[in-house]
Amino acid sequence: MPIYYTSIIQEHNSVRNNAGLFDVSHMGEFHLSGPDSESFLQKMTVNDVGQLYEGRAQYSAMCYDSGGIVDDLLIYKKENGYMLVVNATNRKKDYQWLYSNLGKNVHLEDHSDEMSLIAIQGPKSRNILQRIVSSDLSDIAFYHFIEYDRIAGTTAMIARTGYTGELGYEIYAKTNSIVLIWDALMDLGEKDGLVPTGLGCRDTLRMEMKYVLYGNDIDENTSPVEAGLSWIIKQDKGDFIGRGAIIEKMENSDRKLVCFTMKELAIPRRGFVILKNDNEIGIVTSGTMSPSLEKGIGMGYVTLPHHTPGTEIMVNIRGQNKSAIIAESPLYKNGTATK
Q: Residue limits of the Aminomethyltransferase C-terminal domain (predicted)?
């Protein structure tokens, strides 16, 4: 997928106001099956897989014993097992991590090369997609999916998930079928403002929502507690890898991931220093110019107690300190994802 097709701003605004179509086939897809697959996932992930049922999806993370994050991922409970969708850059690492912990009654397969993924996102996405699917899309609740549906003359899995903060659907199909679906959507969606969208606006959209990106905002040295992901940690479900370290971090965390907006005309970037009263309190992990807010925005880890919304900070941008303020998340308040 290119950085952009026309421009990042145009594509970003199309997703916020109409719809955009992303090719995210670089993501990794694993299939997990076997009688012990649920208990295996309970051990490997921080969320409670026991809450899943067929047709339900879950956002989760895998951690090391240290509590650092192996990867964040989506888990789909299918008819004959689970599908795990992992970040492309972590595909090999994740597979090896899962395989090294695999039990005898669990079967792991990497389907990434034979599976492709496109995502239609935006407030008009449902109306556009509905024209080429047999199921009633209004019946698919947020973080639910239909495993088998006829779409553009082929079969695909349709999930109401996404990475933009808008109403949207992710479509999984065999690689040789995905082009047919893409072309059908573009043909039928053009009158509603559907445009192809690239990685650039995927990044600006997710930053406006404070959605983390592995390698920027989270990695093996960050805890899900620090990253604002405590809501997916279900410590009462029983033991899982990293549980002890995560509980310790809940009691003794000294930094938090925050989002902020610039008060001056400036764009924060990854690696820039965050200051309070001329003292370094953190580092920017992600930053951009927000097309929706029309100002610079960013994310970064700051030491406590400077994480409180409303706290005024400075960001050192190419040798000059620029004023900013820590904000409530999400920065963009009008998303349609759950509507």
A: 255-333
Over the range 169-186, which residues count as b (16 or more CB within 10 Å of their CB) and which as e?
bbbbbeeebbebbbebbe
Report the C-alpha gap between 268 and 245 in whole angstroms: 32
Strands 19-23 and 194-197: parallel
The CATH code for residues 254-332 is 2.40.30.110
Q: What is the DSSP string of 219-263?
A: -TT--TTTTT-GGG--GGG---TTHHHHHHHHHH--EEEEEEEES
Sorted by sequence, the CB contacts under 8 Å of residue 163 that are 6+ apart come out as 119, 121, 202, 205, 206, 211
Residue 267, token pair as written in the block: 């764009």
3-state secondary structure of 187: helix
What CATH number was assigned to the domain covering residues 8-204? 3.30.1360.120
Residues 6+ apart with CB under 8 A from 331: 207, 208, 209, 210, 259, 261, 290, 293, 297
Structure tokens at 31: 């299939």
Residue intervals of the chain classified under CATH 3.30.1360.120 are 8-204
pLDDT, average across residues 167-178: 97
d(CA 213, CA 327): 19
Q: For the chain, where do the domains classified as CATH 2.40.30.110 start and end?
A: 254-332
Q: Residue 61, Cβ neighbours under 10 Å: how many? A: 24
Position of tokens 């997990």? 32
* pLDDT at 1 exceeding the cut of 90: no
Q: What is the pLDDT of residues 173-196, one digit of tens each?
A: 999 999 999 999 999 999 999 999
